Amino acid sequence: MPPAPPNTLRPLPNLPQGSEPLFVCATSGTTVLGAFDPLDAIADICARHGLWLHVDVSSGGPWLGGAPQTLLFPPTRADSVTWNPHKLLMVGLQCSAFLLRDSSGLLQRCHGVGASYLFQQDKFYDVSLDTGDKSPQCGRRADGLKLWILWKAVGTRGLGWRVERAFAATRYLLEQVKRREGFQLVMEVGMTLECGMGNVDS
Questions:
Q1: Upstream peptide bond of 121 is cis (omega within 30 degrees of 0)
Q2: Are 159 and 147 in contact (CB under 8 A)?
Q3: Closest Cα to residue 77, out of 51, 98, 97?
Q4: How is the chain split into domains, by residue range?
Q5: Between 3.40.50.720, 1.10.220.30, 1.20.1250.20, 3.40.640.10, what CATH number should domain 23-154 receive?
Q6: How far apart are CA 147 and CA 60, in angstroms?
Q7: In this predicted model, what pLDDT tens digit does every residue of 36-49 receive, in sequence order?
């Protein structure tokens, strides 16, 4: 099947008999090209067919309110979202988040093993806060603490400024590549990445 034009959807190929899609993974700002899927159109299809929509906004959703509005995808339309504050927000490596719209304890039902020697029910705090029984890894670093500390240090404006500065630098680089001899713009994208090449002989 030939590639689809940008920002268009193409029909699924013929699926094997008995197969039924259940999950769609869309991207919002890919790491290499800063590419965006047509998220609203994909969300409409998922809603129509009852499909789980996961959106990877690792780069494309750096800071709600900091990036241009055209890049923001309403998180409520996705069933799950992954987000990496260690990218454009420059939180210390690594800092990743997996966000769910579901509030029924889905992760614990899927991954929990109820190991009583690890997750005692008589703790002095709300045991629903234990994340170990909600992920395949059991133990994880407290990534959220890094984001919280940075947020407290620089504030909402400071985080937004980091993103705005990155977009400003991208626009500056784009103009420089366009105006200088010996450089050619290979692809213009909407994120903080631009693809170009230079002639080393010029």
A1: no
A2: no
A3: 51
A4: 23-154
A5: 3.40.640.10
A6: 17
A7: 888 889 999 999 98
